[in-house]
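re: ur question from yesterday

yeah so i grabbed the chain u mentioned. its 622 aa long if i counted rite. heres the sequnce exactly as i have it in my notes:
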Amino acid sequence: MTLFSLARKNIQRNLSNYFLYIASMVFSIVIYFTFVTLKYSDDLASSTGMSQQIKGLMSASSIVLLFFIVIFIAYSNSFFMKKRKKEVALYSLLGVRQQKIGLMLFFENLVIGLVSLVLGIIIGFFMSKVLLTILVRLMGYQVVANLTFTPEAVLQTAGIFFVLFLFTSLQGYRVIYQFKLIDLFHAEKQGEKIPRASLLAAILGTVLIAFGYYTASSDIFTSPIWKVFSILGTPLLVIGVTIAGTYLLFHSVSVFVLTALKKATSWSWRGLNLIGVSQLLYRIRANAKSLSIIAILSATTITAGGGVFGMYYNTEASVRHALPNTFMWKGEAVEFDQQNVLYNESIHAKNLRVDNEFAFFEYTLLKESDYNHLASLQGQERELHIADGSAVLLDVNYDERFSHDFTGENFKLQSGESFHIDKMYTDSVLNFMPAGTVLVVNDHVFDTTNAEGITMQVVGMDNDLKQQSVSKEIFGQLSTEQQEWFSSVPQSYEDSLGTVGSLLFVGSFLGLVFLAATGSIIYFKVLTEAEEDQAKYAVLNKIGVNSRQILKTVAGQVAVIFSAPLIVGIVHSAFALLAFSQLFNMDITKPVLVWMIAYSVIYGLYYLFTVRAFYKIVRQGN
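ran it thru and got these structure tokens back, copy pasting raw so excuse formatting
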């Protein structure tokens, strides 16, 4: 029997154990191949006006994805090598030379890698049309992508991953030359000593995480911590203390909790609880590093995906907040298709300029009757009644953290006139581009105010997000100067959706790759421990413990390993997303909850696969 055939038989025999690893690898290659294909795709250039932006985003994303895949493969191989040490020792005992054993392991890893690469490229080729269609739909374009074959994407993907698999396959030699024969036989028996609960480390871990949460939830513009460490330094500080606190949480806090559970005889002596807690406690330090990494990765994935999904969810609301009218521009009216027009008004306003020694500020002066008329057309219920000498300020960019509140103050103009600001509102009846901040006064004061008069065209249309053709028709009739101040709801929405949609596409699929990889890592680790525990469960079966009790114990033990990093990751991401929502002054509660639930459901599927595989292994020992 040749080494290659022996390697092939080993893969076939262990295919069930390799399945999730291969599936995760294939999925990662599919996403990488798709990103590279999109980078070289001509469909993006023909169907969108953002081809260069998308290509740059895909290039950067493919680098991040490749970096993560390298870590994932290296981490997974370490589990496989540990699992195969006893088998390697047996080959050595039978007289097979170390070089031959190393070649066999080399062939096994290389074959798995090449099979994953071929499957990934083939599936990626057929999936590229679907994924490209998803991308352009998320960007707001109603087009169907074509199935494209790009040789550059195939060569780049095959070349990079072949080198990667070649490098990881060489790791098999380390097992052969690094350990003694007796160490290989007893590799699976080398466990951790039962750790002692450290109250000091538990308190320190809790304090570090609490400090990170407090800093993340503090206002970026008013918090003394943000002022001391700066906007760039504070996030790094939060990330650092959170990672350190997470490691101590699993390394010490979890030991403290499990030790307390073990001592609680009313609970631990019920059923097989004592056995399950003891097994978790025995391996907690070996699992602490892995669980910490998975918790941080989960938090990163949920935070990035939830933040981008929140921005995508609020895209339309953000555009409408700044642009209450479908179209608006300075100057005279132009001819355009009137089919879906709800209103088409010419508004006479005035341009106010306030200078100081550093800069100048421009405001648009609007009379009360025009405000009330536009508010009625837009469906707003507010109606203004302003006394002489008073004014209402409309500032859609107002933020109490860094904007000045003029309410109750006298607003002095360059001309010497002043207005008493009765109220300030954060919405307007004029588009921010080109009107900017708006000052509303009564009609008499408007007529007597000495300022440059301007005419603005205000148009409202039904189904305004779909009026791209009208937007282009109006834009084409404007002068170069007018085009600079032209505001269009459909165009702004398309631009915003294109940017945020592409980010959501990349974030979603990178998040799925991270989720698949982290789920696989736990799967490998738990199954390795299952084989070590085979004999223990066989003893339990012989003394009368039935299959249902064993399954319950297995499910509970695996649930702790899966749920602990998930819960910690969700809590971490909740505070990170709270800071995100405060920074952008955006309500993202609903999209974040949807994202977290979707992440947890997919994560739960890995839990079910792992429980099934764990139970199958321990039943084989019976």
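noticed a couple things. The chain has 23 helices and nine strands. also The CA atoms of residues 306 and 592 lie 5 Å apart.
anyway ttyl
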